[in-house]
Amino acid sequence: AWEAIETGTGNTVYSGTVDLTTTQSGSTYNLTDGARGNHKTYNLNRGTSGTGTLFSGPDDVWGNGTASNAESAGADAHYGAQLTWDYYKNVHGRNGIKGDGVGAYSRVHYGNAYVNAFWSDSCFCMTYGDGSGNANPLTSIDVAAHEMTHGLTSATAGLNYSGESGGLNEATSDIFGSTVEFYANNSSDVGDYLIGEEININGDGTPLRYMDKPSKDGSSKDSWYSGIGSVDVHYSSGPANHFFYLLSEGSGAKTINGVSYNSSTSDGLPVTGIGRAKAEQIWFKALTTKFTSTTNYAGARTGTLAVAGELYGTTSAEYKAVQDAWAGVAVGS
Ligand code: ASN
Ligand code: ZN
Ligand code: CA
C-alpha cells in the first residue's frame, strides 16, 4: 500500500485538541510520525512486554479527551514525543535523540494501574502507566519530555544513574521536561517550573517536583552537601533543578503563567536571572560537550562555566550568573 505523511487530530487528556503527525497506509491511519523519524506510539493494553499494537484506525482522529478512551493517552504520548523532537531540533539543532534523525517509540497503558513512566535504553523507547484508578495516565508533556530526555542524556553525556551523576541525569530530564512544556506554549497546558503537576500522582493536585524550591516536595534537596550522592537520584537532582531555576529567573518571588515561585539561595545572596532561553542553551551545550558519565556537581559547575565562557565570555553577566546560581545552591569553586 502507498504511504503518506498526514496531519491528524489528537484529543488528548492534558493538552486539549492538537495536531498530530501520522501516516496513512492505504485506507488505514497509524500513529507513526512520518516527519520525525517514524516515531511510533503503541497500545500495550495492560501488557508489560513487547510493543502491543500500533495505534491505528480508519480515521485520523485519536482519542476523545478523556482517559477512559484508550486512544487519548496515545494522543498525549504521541504529542509529547513530537514536541520534544521539535524542541531539540528547533532550539538546539539536534535531529532526534541520537542526532541521526531516527525516531524512538512510545508505549502507553503499561500494566495495571502502574503509577510511573520510564525510558529504556534497551528498547530505545518510553513507556507510560495509567496511574492509580486509570484516571491519570502519566502522559503529560513534562513527563514525556522528561523520559525522552533520558534517551538524549544516555546518547550524549551518559551520566551514570547513581550518585551525584545520577542526580544530574534526573535534573537534566526535569530541566528539559520544563523547557519543552514552555516550548509547547499550549493554552491547555502552559509552561511552568513544576514537574508532573497535571498527573495528580500525590492525589492532592500537587506536582512531583518544584524547581524553584525543590524541598517543597518533602524529599528533594535545595542545595548540595557532601553525602548528597547517597540519596535517591530523584531527590539529589534538587540542587541542579534549583540552579537552573535561579539561572533562568533569578532569586526572589515571581509569577509566571499564573504560577507563583519563590526561590532563595543557600548563601543568602541574590541571583539575577539571564532568562530561560540562555539557560537552556548553557545546560544543553554542557550536557553534550562537557559532561561525562562520572560528572559530579563540581564538574557540572566547571562544565557550565566553560560553556558560558565560550558563548558569552568570562567577563559577561551570563558567566557571573552561572557562578552566582551555583553558589546559591552551595556548589562552590
Ligand atoms: N519516572 C522515573 C524516571 O524517569 C522512572 C524511574 O525512576 N526509573 O526517573
Ligand atoms: Zn527520570
Ligand atoms: Ca510542568
UniProtKB/TrEMBL annotation:
Molecular functions (GO terms): metallopeptidase activity
Keyword annotations: Hydrolase, Metal-binding, Metalloprotease, Protease, Secreted, Signal, Zinc
Keyword Metal-binding: yes
Record carries keyword Zinc: yes
Cell location: Secreted
Tree of life domain: Bacteria
Entry function: Extracellular zinc metalloprotease.
Family, per entry: Belongs to the peptidase M4 family.
UniProt name for this protein: Neutral metalloproteinase
Organism of this sequence: Streptomyces graminofaciens
Upper lineage: Bacteria, Bacillati, Actinomycetota, Actinomycetes, Kitasatosporales
